[in-house]
Write the C-alpha cells for this entry.
Amino acid sequence: MRLNELSPANGSRSPRKRVGRGVGSGFGKTAGRGSNGFKSRSGGKVRPGFEGGQMPIHRRLPKRGFTNIFMKNIAEVNIRDLSVFESESVVDLPALIRSGLVKGRHDGVKLLGHGEINHPLTIKVNRISKSAREKIETAGGTVEVK
C-alpha cells in the first residue's frame, strides 16, 4: 500500500451542501434558512456573548480591580543564570536576549541575587538587588545601573 492508493472510508466524506441552486436540489429558494426573520437575512448572526435579550453574564458579574497602564514590564534574571557568559564579558539587555535568558518585550532588566558567580562580569541593567551587587563586586566585576 502506498500513500497515493489511500482513500477515505465509505461514508466518511459527504459532498459539500450547495445552497441556493434551484428547487430540485432540496436547498433552493430559501437555501435552508426558513422563510423570514433575522437569521434568514444576510449577516443575520447574533454577536458573541448575546443571550437573547437577557442581561449578558459579562454585565451581570461585578467588576473588580484595575489595570495600571503605567506599569513597567521588568524581566528578572538571577546571578546563577549568568554562568553562560564568559569572564570579562559585558552583560546587558541585548546580550541577555541573545543568550535566551530574556524572552519577549521588556522595559528593563532587574538582576536578583539567587545563586553564585565565580568570574568577573560587567553588568549593565536597569535595576539590581543589594545582594546581587555584592556578589558581582566580590567576584571582581562591575555594575552599571542605567
Observations:
- The chain has a mean pLDDT of 93.
- The radius of gyration is 32 Å.
- The longest strand covers residues 74-78.
- The helical segments are 57-60, 93-99, 130-138.
